[in-house]
Automatic annotation (TrEMBL):
Protein known as: Mechanosensitive ion channel-like protein
Pfam families: MS_channel_1st_1
A Gene Ontology molecular function term of the record: mechanosensitive monoatomic ion channel activity
Upper classification of the organism: Bacteria, Pseudomonadati, Bacteroidota, Cytophagia, Cytophagales
InterPro entries per UniProt: MSC_TM_helix, MscS_archaea/bacteria_type
Species of provenance: Dyadobacter jejuensis
Keywords: Membrane, Transmembrane, Transmembrane helix
The keyword Cytoplasm belongs to this UniProt entry's keyword annotation: no
Membrane spanning residue stretches: 25-43, 81-102, 114-138, 159-178, 190-209
Amino acid sequence: MNNFPNITEILLNTFNTLISQFVEFVPRVIGCIVILLIGYLVARGVRIVISQLLSRVGLDRVGDKLNEIDIIKKLKTEVKLSDIVATILYYYILLIFLTFAADTLGVDTITNMVLSLVGFIPKLIAGAIMLQVGIMLSDALKTGVVSICKSFNISAAKLIGNIVFVFFLVITFITALGQIGIETALLESSFTIIFGGAIAAFGLGYGIASRDVLANIISSFYSRKNYQVGQVIKIGTVKGVISKIDTTSVTVVNETATTIIPLQMFQNTQVEVYNS
């Protein structure tokens, strides 16, 4: 009978151990709660101050320009940069205090996880800034391309502008993901293949469909220098005064009619120019 362990003594030792660990852990929990409370108050105060400060210095004006971009309008959201920056700082400060709180508890797993999040925040901010600048640059390029295409009377000006916008936006998005630390090699190769094939198909189809327009545009570089508004010309059966010359055609006016002649005709048709 003496070989059996003393159950009462074992239970007492276990209970005493649990009580001592609990007594030792309670101050850590209280310290953790105090640190989190202080961190919340500090983060909230910084958020309010930074939001008001950035709003007063005019940072929201950049957000207003972003709100004018078509893709932002379609998302039916409003970009207010002062609130976005203040919110990011708010959570960043909370994570820093959460690191201190986790360290107080002495739980290494939680501490390492929070430290990883704290290190990730600056990368996320850099990626967000890069994406924001990319959206604005893509929209500016889209506007420029549309204006140039319209000046050449290209009917698909808006479509071409949208293609340019999407192209540079996707490149910016992939670059931003790389900045954050996400592997983008597969995404880059897939985008290159898909977008390259789409551009080639569009270029071939649009080139065939618009060959006459392109021919007139090319002809304008050679023909416009030989003719000017006010000249009296005869091309084919049409004789009259040149009233207008644009990138694709010449407008000839006579007593009976106004005729718009494609510039391409001036390359393969005999033209008579009369002295005024």
